[in-house]
Design goal:
The protein has 332 residues and is α+β, with helices and mostly antiparallel strands. It has 2 domains: 2-186, no CATH class; 194-318, Cyclophilin. 17% of the residues lie in helices and 28% in strands. It contains 5 helices and 21 strands. It has a 7-stranded mixed β-barrel. It has a 6-stranded antiparallel β-sheet with strand order 7-6-9-4-1-11, with no helix packed on it. Strand 14 (219-221) and strand 15 (229-233) form a beta hairpin. The protein is elongated, with a radius of gyration of 20 Å.
Length: 332
């Protein structure tokens, strides 16, 4: 089993997978990578199952030393990635020689990147998932963010990955293929996106002016945002008539409105139930855009029907299947 040494941990680097679906009834958040699309693509690029455990890197990345040669891929926001001062490309498989020191600097655009390694990170499965749940202190690597001195273990690589690594081996420190996941197949990341939403259960609790402000205005991401949710600042969204509600289930992408009228969009580690009115829910296909927003970025909302949101998800699934097939054809 190969090993990766953490020389510097970065601002917030955690082991994540695609979450713990089905656990919310136990009070456990779904969790997983905030940008699940980036993790899925990075895993495919190194021959892993889509949900293999990888690293989620936030704003400023780690320095990692590879004790054995490895095949890695990085997707998500644009980060400065180097080995011995040489810049490495994202969105393609990279072969690293034993002893190579991979440095991920600060994010140039976006907020998060996902790093996958052939074989996946060998961490225990807890409640059906390998991702880190920071608030509860379990999953991932000892239930916490990485620290300098940690040693990560990597599982056995697939035959596809071993063949590709063998074809790339031989360069001084690293090598890469000439192909990549093209921009047309990646999420349309932006520092000022307009995301599609469907009406939430309490949509009618908000007056016409509040609903218009929600759909026509821009909201700024505040410093209080994290993996639990994006806290936004903008024109207040007032209830037509003040009222109380019983807490009920919420999902990733739910747009809650607390009494101050400033929306909160739930992300991967969002709570399982909420007592704030829900004005809208972000279409699943647009969730990766939320994961890449950083403080002072802005966001707007566009209403779509449930049927339209479903078609967006189906279209994203068809595109992903095409990309997956294309990557598989590159076996050495």
């Amino acid at each position: 089993m190969s090993r990766i040494h953490v020389i510097k941990p970065g601002r917030l680097t955690t082991v994540q997978d695609l979450g713990r679906p089905g656990s919310q009834r136990y009070g456990v958040t779904t969790g997983g990578a905030a940008d699940a699309g980036a993790l899925r693509l990075a895993n495919l690029l190194v021959g892993n199952p889509e949900g293999a455990a990888g690293l989620e890197i936030t704003l400023a990345g780690p320095t990692l030393q590879f004790a054995e040669e490895a095949l890695v891929a990085i997707g998500g926001g644009e980060f400065e990635v180097t080995v011995e001062g040489q810049r490495l490309p994202m969105w393609r498989p990279l072969w690293l020689k034993a002893g190579a020191e991979l440095v991920l600097g600060e994010a140039r655009t976006g907020c998060r990147a996902c790093l996958a390694v052939a074989g996946g990170f060998a961490v225990p499965r807890v409640l059906g998932g390998r991702g880190t749940y920071l608030a509860a202190g379990f999953g991932g690597f000892e239930g916490r963010a990485l620290r300098a001195g940690d040693v990560l273990k990597v599982g056995p690589a697939s035959l596809w990955a071993r063949r590709l690594a063998a074809a790339l081996a031989g360069e001084p420190r690293w090598n890469s293929v000439r192909w990549e996941v093209g921009a047309a197949a990646r999420p349309r990341y932006s520092a000022a996106p307009i995301v599609r939403v469907v009406r939430g259960p309490q949509w009618d609790w908000f007056g016409g002016e509040a609903r218009e402000r929600f759909l026509s205005g821009r909201f700024t991401v505040t410093l209080r945002s994290n993996r639990m949710g994006l806290r936004l600042a903008g024109a207040a969204l007032d209830l037509e008539t003040p009222r109380e509600m019983v807490s009920e289930g919420v999902v990733v992408g739910t747009v809650q409105v607390p009494p101050d009228g400033q929306p909160i969009v739930l992300l991967a580690d969002g709570q399982t139930i909420g007592g704030y009115p829900k004005i809208a829910v972000v279409a699943t296909s647009d969730l990766p855009l939320l994961a890449q927003l950083r403080p002072d970025d802005t966001i707007g909302f566009q209403e779509v029907s449930v049927a339209e949101a479903q078609e967006l998800l189906l279209a994203a699934g068809r595109l992903f299947a095409t990309v997956k097939q294309g990557i598989a054809l590159h076996a050495a």
